Amino acid sequence: MSHAKLGSASLLSVIILTSVLSGCGNSSTGGASPSASPTASASGTAADNLYAEHMDISLSWWGIGVGFEKRDEVVQKLEKDFNVTLKPVDIGWDNYKEKNQVWAAAGQLPDLITNSVLNDSPATYNDWVKQGLIHPLPDDLSAYPNVEKIAKAEDVQGIYRDGKLYAIPRMTYPNTDMWAVDRAIFVRKDWMDKLGIQDPTNFQEFSGMLKAFAEKDPDGNGKKDTTGIVMNTLGYFKAVFMPTFPQFDNSSWLQEDGKWIPFYASKRMDEVVKEARQLYKDGGLDPDFAVEKAGEANQKFYQNKAGALAFNVDSVGGATGVKAEWEKNNPGQKFFDHVKLLHLWPAADGTLYRHTTISFWSETMINADVDDKKLNRILSIYDWLLSPEGKELFDYGIEGKDYAKDASGQITITRPKDGDSFIDLKKEYPSLDIVSQLAAWRNASSIEDTPANRAVKGDDVVQLVQDELNWQMTHAKAIPTAFDIATMSTPAKDKLSAINADDDFIKVILSKQDPVDMWHDIVKGYYANKGLQSAIDEVNALKGQKG
Amino acid sequence: MTKSLGKELYKYRYLYLLLLPTVLFYALFQYLPMYGVLLAFKEYHFKAGILGSPWVGWDNFEALLRQREFWQAFRNTVILSLGRIVFEFPAAILLALLINEVAGRRLKKFYQTVFTFPHFISWVIISGILFNFLGSDGVLNQILAAFGASKESFLTSPGLFRAIVFLSNIWKEVGWSAIIYLAAIAGINPELYEAAYMDGANRFQQLMAVTWPSIRGTAGILLILSVGNAMNGNFEQIFNLYNPGVYSTGDIIDTYVYRSAFVDGSGFGVSTAIGLFKAAINFALLYAANFAVKRLGGEGLV
Asked: Tens of pLDDT along B232-288?
């Protein structure tokens, strides 16, 4: 008996053993680069056999696993047109940097790598270039004019290394002007009217308005349960200080006393921290701002607990936009009867500033293991993604199914309606959000005045965005921004990413100590422990060389 | 000698086969990966791998120890861990003793369920609950306002953060931690109580003379384990509760590493150095606690 039992038990242990061991085997990733076949390459000049050889291309994107699950018609079209099979590699918003690092370490990076090191950690970009993990783009991009346009954009020049470009930056807007509408202060104009407040013409008036929102019971419920301004995230709130210190808003470098320094080292920060503390102390700034998670505080604005919301103009539209959410909480009332955009006041020198920043965020990098033929195919795909034909697909869907185009180019949307508006293309094609943003963000498309946008977002929303953009272009001046320094890389400057000035800014606002003293102390720490001095020296030396 | 060993092995071959998966598991997943610790003394190069990357000596440790924030985080970790041992550790024992004294069986079960339940709520949700309770429009501030007092910002005040950490963790975990003590109490021979009762001991004297000595060994082991874990400061709790306003008292090593690993991507070496640093201290603490418990007449772990 015991022998039989022991025998079966040891059999079981063997099974467990094999399953454990097979579990740690290397699962094939599908991203293995195909060995170049020498036969097809020599002749292929004619357009029809340009894509004769079938290729597998692996690519990573946030949530691509779900988006590509159905392999909908958009994916199919891309695969058919370019004779490729796209192998999705999933990354998440909360882990993509870690995943990329781990894949880099394990030699398992996909062919097309989605990352954001250009903006967020230039040291990593330099590392990857130096260690040969990523492929440079060809010097001559004339065969891919749309990609070439990006490669030649002014603020992209800073990311060339030894004359070569190692990434396709993902442009947010085609130029740095359109960023003007990426900052907005929504304000309750009905509350302003009730309290007899005019548009503020300087910071003190602004502060007074927010204080009145908090203290003078603007909603008339007899309770002191309102606050002044809430923010979607801190970045949007920083725009409030644009008139006081423009470069604080976009966290850039500036020249002070003949030297280039990062914004946090400027003496103009004194005024900023003083003002921010005042807002907080007076109750004009949401007392919970440091505790709330991104987007959480917006609810206070929607639920009539806050008089102003710092966010961006485009966020007004859409099913979960500011307008829709506000009207959901205030049934029967019209958003635009109660809320307007508040314009900032001119700086001390009389100049009115508008937000601007570097025109891209995040990038596509190409695995160094990708051979030239695959590189060319990838660039062809990207060129198409950036082309007007690509945009037409992203705006209107599949021709013949979702829209019709006559000889003059007039487009008629034929896709079915859901209630008043057309059904959402993203619901029809789950991959659309991914494919359309692979090469460039769609921010510019989403704020332009097109029939597609008017159909989806409504006339009033499109008009608001257009009016605001025009107003900013006519009245305001872009923040003077040293784009070349933003992407400049020196050994010490790369290490400055260890400084988190936003966290320290919040700390100063919340504290009870003198804000200016505190800030000076913090900056002293940057100089003493974070290598700020050598970073400044290196940047100024390099800037001097370049003239 | 060798022959007899071979014989032994063959004789008990099935038993050794049963043992094999466990040995292999530890060898493969616990001991083999330890060579990764080398990274603490290397500058990691992707193409070269762990073994091929160049040595940098103590550079990673120096980089770490130079950072002011690291020392702040280190200090906070130590203080929070000490606080946990002083405030949270006895709370579970106390609760177990109290529940044990509840007369009705159903009532006992009821209390146990009520106290255990919060264990199953994640910290994300608890941070939301705390926000509703302690925020500027939270319950507590509304009560304060009703009495005419001015509002306090509880969640952003560095002086209160540690108290919030201890109290919220006691609330969440005390019932769960008490289970092991309750199990130990359930195993006590009732004759001991009867004998004590015959000797005229009241409830409190029974508790001191019978119950406590019976669970002291369990408490000793758990104390050693929690001291050996002191450098891990409960990342999930701190991460969900803290904000820049309370870094000065609440930022622990784990949260600091988490934040700095994200801004500076090339820090495999430094992260490993921190891990090794923590492990070394935990190891020393574990032995110290073990020694102390043994000296005090307890049983100890090793």
From this structure: 889 999 999 999 999 999 999 989 888 876 555 546 788 888 889 999 999 999 998
Question: Do the chains contact at A510 and B245, CB–CB below 8 Å?
Answer: yes
E strands in B109-223: none
CB A509 within 8 A of CB A273: yes
A521–chain B nearest CA distance, Å:
13
E strand or H helix that includes residue A357? none
| Other beta carbons within 10 Å of B222 | 17
3-class SS letters over A217-278: CCCCCCCCCCEEEEECCHHHHHHHHCCCCHHHHCCCEEEECCEEEEHHHCCCHHHHHHHHHH
Euclidean distance between CA atoms A113 and B14, whole angstroms: 50
Tell if the CB–CB gap between B156 and A495 is shorter than 8 Å.
no
Parent domain of B197: 67-295
The secondary element (H helix, E strand) that includes residue A342 is strand A339-342
| Structural domain includes residue A36 | no
Domains contained in chain A, number: 2
pLDDT digits 0-9 by tens, A161-205: 999 999 999 999 888 889 999 999 999 999 999 999 999 999 999
**Closest partner CB to A498 (pick from B243, B247, B260):** B260
Q: Which residue of B has its CA nearest to A504?
A: B244
Cβ-defined contact of A13 to B260 (cutoff 8 Å): no
Q: What's the full length of chain A, in residues?
A: 547
Q: Nearest CA to A78 among A523, A377, A500?
A: A377
Asked if residue B134 and residue B272 are part of one domain, the reply reads yes
Alpha helices by DSSP H, chain B: 2-11, 13-25, 49-52, 59-66, 68-83, 89-101, 105-116, 123-134, 139-146, 158-186, 190-198, 203-206, 212-228, 235-241, 247-250, 253-263, 268-295
Q: Do A510 and B135 make contact, defined as CB atoms within 8 angstroms? A: no
